[in-house]
# Entry
Amino acid sequence: MVKVAIESNVWRDDSGSVVSGFEDLGGEFDDVANDTATASTLEHENNDTIILLIGQTGTGKTTFIYNATGNPNAKIGEELESETSEISQYDLFVDGHRVILVDTPGFDDTEIPDADIFRNLAEWLAKSYQEGKLIAGIIYFQRITDNRLSKTAKRNIFTFKDICGEGFMENVMLLSTLWARDGAEKMKQMKREERYKDNQDYWKSMIDQGAKTDRYRLYDPHEFGDAQRRAHEIISKILENQPQTTRIQQEMVDDEKKPHETTAGLHLVSEIDKLQEKFEVLIQDLEDKANRSEKDREQYKRELDDLQRQAREAKVQSQKLHGTYKATVMAAIGAVVVSAAAVAAAALSS
# Structure
């Protein structure tokens, strides 16, 4: 029976029952580290299996961790708000192997800008590679309940592909989550899964390069044992992988690139640049509409206020993504956009 570490003297077995004291384990797994720590504090052994968990907010990463480890510190959000504000690590034993689950914030995190998330993840991966700790696998979480992938979800997939690189795809698990137990809803989800697999912009290109797919359904609280066994089955498949380096690790360590100079970083930089251009066009359009319409002046003013906020956020992300050498240029562009919005708002209120 697989037992999972919770705290220094508390364990749960496969049924979810708490076993108190190491004396009850018959000497099994004597040297177990604490269950969770930040990325900078948890030390790995050379034979540890490191698995990254990546996905949007609400895709079930934290639920998966809780089910796999039984760890009450893996707080599960009831709303679509992120419960993962930093890179966190949880350790457990599966099939006699010490496994480190690395939980990462989603790129649509409600509290952290995408630029910060990307830089933190890139730097964590680079540091791990420098310390000789290779990644055995990455589980990419995707809600099967999403009828269509949002622009954010599509952008996340492109960024994920850039981070991994083709050579790492054999170590990737594409995990669709929130599956219905059975019935008509599950049939719809199965058709949706096929669309994901057949679409080049979704999963197909990754599957063609060796990525595997699997499913993880919703479990009721009384089904903890089943949920844990299923999570361990998924983890067991990754135990078979040969640990490898991702593209972004090679670019940052071997090629000595900064995060914004990597393939994934350049893609995000391009997206932010396009966003800046979009703001300028939208602000000009709103100015023109406001000058032509007295009736809708207040509505346009509210829209301009919202654009001002988004422009400020985009300016900050531009500075972070481009790095210090380009920060001044991007700050100037952002200032122009914010200034234009402010002028337009002032004109409307006069």
Confidence is low (pLDDT under 50) at residues 1-42, 75-84, 324-329. The two ends are 74 Å apart (CA to CA). Strands lie at 4-7, 10-12, 18-20, 36-38, 49-55, 88-94, 97-103, 137-143, 172-179, 212-217. The longest strand covers residues 172-179.
